[in-house]
């Protein structure tokens, strides 16, 4: 009896618990989320805006212009799930439309631009699947702007530190509008493109926002992937954007060859081809493996001299009018030719970095910090800024190439 | 087991940052090791007190040594320490869950829910609580192993260099931070009653401390290797960020950190529940007439109020240091002085016996 009574008394409590304790503050149904997969940051284009938009927009623009702080034009790429689904159904020509749309917002800060975005979208923006952030050159060149733009993407808890950051010479919105035929989402396309380091030595390793954060904190000059807008169907990623470590602003770009050189200097080549010529013949060398060791000797004036020891292994990819590729001296010849080619690449890069940009992207400063701390502490301020120590340091290249295989065949024609 | 899971609380999430702030490059490992040694010595001393107390609870033992009034003082001090400890853990978990899991749920509500669960856990039998520890600890260790083995993908040995560049003062400051995270072994004073063979208490304490020091070292070296020293300094919860970085091959399980949170909240629950339980124990000594239910009902609101008192991160940190000081006072200094006192008394007794005989 008492037990039953107790049980009966418990019942209202149970009901109350069910009613009051359940529920979830943060519940957002998955179909209510607007998945943001890419973000592009441009500087606002004043002319166009003025032409197209209504008056209140204009008023706002004028306010922005009178404001000494320049604002950003932030482009969000949001997934449209419907577009993704129809593709699976197989309707190729049905043209169910794009799987994404881009929406541009002008603001001074990222967080408020996000807020503005949610004023326009029916679905709450959701960033956990953010794949790429593209920053246009004009923003990155301005002092401090670069760090300002990525602060929000580091701070917000939805963000991951593995989001890619890229710089483009063109407009970020154009890059985000690239529409490759085999991919539904430009952002996913860009992310996968940035991973293609195994296929080409001219693509920098992917630049994750977490790494960029560390570079900014360390005041290290760094290079990140730069993307170029090819045409509607493709973009290329064979450039590198060089940032100065002290001012944290973009100072310039390395072209494809120089990027390859930088990859060699940092020992991060995973694959790719080297075109070489010897005896007026053209050949292509496939890189399979490489190792890199940096050596530093202190001269009599207590200044360091650097030597890059680089070992590359690979095979013959293509030979036009080949000599006997199985003969010792032919192999030696090819090895020397490839070696000259690689040294040339690295020289190009070091020349540009040392004399044009004065930015130590290739990791000499890091090396000194890690291995010659005392010396580094004494000369830290003179490295890039005042003393121009970096630009006057001699750098030697010691490259050894081994051609391991010649492929399936020896000669094509005889 | 119990000791280890008491020690591994919120500290594991913030410790790398605290250590990295005071030391340079990878030198914090010295801080962690040295602090571990100090904690080990203190732990051995404290467990000696506990062994000496034998079957009696710590407070009863201290009554026999220093008399009732002083013991009341000790009990009050211990009570406020354990209470503060419990609320600190609660607030910490609420803060972190708010940051990473519940964007819109108010912190107040998260901590309320957590405290209610803790109250429920404590109102059961005490040995059940201890058994829960034994249950949870292995999963924590497995989690650490997973984080470490998958985190190594981003590990750069270069980030650990150069060695030995921190001035001694920095190492000492780093040590201070580590010791805060290693406090908590004084629970042996109370839980020794549950041990089958109390004489093994010293071994259990040192085992617990060594396990936590090893875990701290492993996490610390990994975090520094991945984020580099300066990166760790500027990431609020480095360990969570590390867990977020982990991606299993094949995108099969992209959100690893959710699992990490589950396991980790379990341990913090243990820590908080033990703190709560001991606060309850001390209160029972102060007010013998109250039944356990009333005691819990008294403690819970106080704990909740303390936990909600700090307004921002800075105040919260102040609360943390305050509690750590109290821990040093009530957890180490008090028992050790009791030990000295007890030793003296014993000698006197012996002397008396001799003279009497």
TrEMBL record, chain A:
<feature type="compositionally biased region" description="Basic and acidic residues">
    <location>
        <begin position="47"/>
        <end position="66"/>
    </location>
</feature>
<dbReference type="InterPro" id="IPR008844">
    <property type="entry name" value="Spore_GerAC-like"/>
</dbReference>
<feature type="region of interest" description="Disordered">
    <location>
        <begin position="41"/>
        <end position="68"/>
    </location>
</feature>
<keyword id="KW-0732">Signal</keyword>
<dbReference type="InterPro" id="IPR046953">
    <property type="entry name" value="Spore_GerAC-like_C"/>
</dbReference>
<dbReference type="GO" id="GO:0016020">
    <property type="term" value="C:membrane"/>
</dbReference>
<feature type="domain" description="Spore germination GerAC-like C-terminal">
    <location>
        <begin position="239"/>
        <end position="407"/>
    </location>
</feature>
<comment type="similarity">
    <text>Belongs to the GerABKC lipoprotein family.</text>
</comment>
<feature type="domain" description="Spore germination protein N-terminal">
    <location>
        <begin position="26"/>
        <end position="224"/>
    </location>
</feature>
<keyword id="KW-0309">Germination</keyword>
<dbReference type="GO" id="GO:0009847">
    <property type="term" value="P:spore germination"/>
</dbReference>
<keyword id="KW-0472">Membrane</keyword>
<dbReference type="Pfam" id="PF25198">
    <property type="entry name" value="Spore_GerAC_N"/>
</dbReference>
<protein>
    <submittedName>
        <fullName>Spore germination protein</fullName>
    </submittedName>
</protein>
<dbReference type="InterPro" id="IPR057336">
    <property type="entry name" value="GerAC_N"/>
</dbReference>
<keyword id="KW-0564">Palmitate</keyword>
<dbReference type="InterPro" id="IPR038501">
    <property type="entry name" value="Spore_GerAC_C_sf"/>
</dbReference>
<dbReference type="Pfam" id="PF05504">
    <property type="entry name" value="Spore_GerAC"/>
</dbReference>
<keyword id="KW-0449">Lipoprotein</keyword>
